[in-house]
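Action item from last meeting closed. Structure (399 res):
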């Protein structure tokens, strides 16, 4: 799930020295980058199977649950500007390591919170730690890609999606085996912490650049960039809905057991991983506009199948289609924003990122309110309609 927010941050930082491919530290840095994307995807997706437990344990309806879920997004959004400063000031190595361990520390808290307020606080801290990791790991990935000669960023994000599969499926399998929820969270947190510590020394350091053009950050973006941000917001909203509501939907609307409810997000993550790992090839083969247009149509169809057909199997297939369709919409829109002539690339990327994450971070709460007023299937179907709007405006992805 989280994308290239740090392209703006990374533009203000550079490695102390750009080494050749023969540098023995570079393969280790690539491996460390791949693992931190994988770790981030695993840790975030572990929350999806926990949501139905939290809803039942605390006696929350959809509206109250949506409000609590908003804390995860608020924590991430609040921490991202701070993460940019920390990465710029102290280097990505320390920021990734400390924030990564913080994510592991807060994971078990999510299973212990006795009230809605304490769960919201735990989610805020968990989301804030994730926001810092996301910024720093993307900034690190930009530098590793530059040192490697380019062409590997999509693979990093594919591993994040792979982590989404591993985390949600792993939690579901542990729960199916009869392990207590707290024990599942502790085991996965310890494993992820060990992996993070094992790669700490392999991350690159940064030196602060002297020519950072900070004054451009506050310029007003072009209309085209704002529209791209709105399209990105809808795509992120679909991703956020999968993370926070797929398990609840399967449990409450399709009567899937608690131990299997996380498989909806697992199906979505499989498709996202495959789509993103093959994304560079697909965009070259079919073009950016077609990738956005038919991707949005496919994701919309997935939501309609999941919510309109009454079987659990059809819902899982629908979530798979959502992942296939949504996989490369956001990367293509980010690329298009950076090419817009009416705005500097930094301004464009910052605008699209802000609008995009607004969808991911506030969308789950909006879905909760809509589900409380109508029903959860109807609320999720509304996302399908919005995705058709993305398909209609897919030509915005053209240079």
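Sequence:
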């Amino acid at each position: 799930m989280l994308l290239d927010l740090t392209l703006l941050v990374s533009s203000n930082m550079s490695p102390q020295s750009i080494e050749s491919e023969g540098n023995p530290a570079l393969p280790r840095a690539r491996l460390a980058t791949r693992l931190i994307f994988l770790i981030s995807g695993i840790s975030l997706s572990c929350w999806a199977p926990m949501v139905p437990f939290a809803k039942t344990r605390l006696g929350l309806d959809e509206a109250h649950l949506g409000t609590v879920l908003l804390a995860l997004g608020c924590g991430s959004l609040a921490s991202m500007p701070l993460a940019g400063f920390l990465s710029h000031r102290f280097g990505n190595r320390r920021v990734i390591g400390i924030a990564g361990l913080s994510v592991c520390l807060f994971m078990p808290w999510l299973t212990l919170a006795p009230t809605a307020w304490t769960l919201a606080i735990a989610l805020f801290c968990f989301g804030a730690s994730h926001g810092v990791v996301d910024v720093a790991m993307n900034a690190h990935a930009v530098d590793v890609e530059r040192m490697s000669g380019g062409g590997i960023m999509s693979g990093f994000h594919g591993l994040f999606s792979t982590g989404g599969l591993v985390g949600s499926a792993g939690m579901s399998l542990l729960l199916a085996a009869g392990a207590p929820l707290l024990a599942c969270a502790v085991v996965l947190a310890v494993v992820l912490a060990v992996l993070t510590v094992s790669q700490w020394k392999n991350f690159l350091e940064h030196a602060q650049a002297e020519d950072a053009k900070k004054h451009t950050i506050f310029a007003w973006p072009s209309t085209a960039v704002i529209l791209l941000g709105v399209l990105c917001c809808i795509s992120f909203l679909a991703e956020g809905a999968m993370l926070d509501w797929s398990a609840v939907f399967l449990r409450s609307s399709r009567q899937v057991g608690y131990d299997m409810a996380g498989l909806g997000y697992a199906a979505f993550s499989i498709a996202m991983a495959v789509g993103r790992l093959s994304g560079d090839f697909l965009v070259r083969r079919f073009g950016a506009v077609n990738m956005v247009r038919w991707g949005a149509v496919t994701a919309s169809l997935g939501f309609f199948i999941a919510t309109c057909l009454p079987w659990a199997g059809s819902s899982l297939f629908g979530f798979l289609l959502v992942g296939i369709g949504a996989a490369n919409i956001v990367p293509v829109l980010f690329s298009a924003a950076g090419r817009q002539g009416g705005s500097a690339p930094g301004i464009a990327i910052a605008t699209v990122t802000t609008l995009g994450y607004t969808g991911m971070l506030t969308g789950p709460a909006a879905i909760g309110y809509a589900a409380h007023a109508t029903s959860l299937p109807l609320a999720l179907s509304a996302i399908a309609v919005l995705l058709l709007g993305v398909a209609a405006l897919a030509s915005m992805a053209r240079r």
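Note appended to the action item: The chain has two domains: 1-15+22-207, 220-399.
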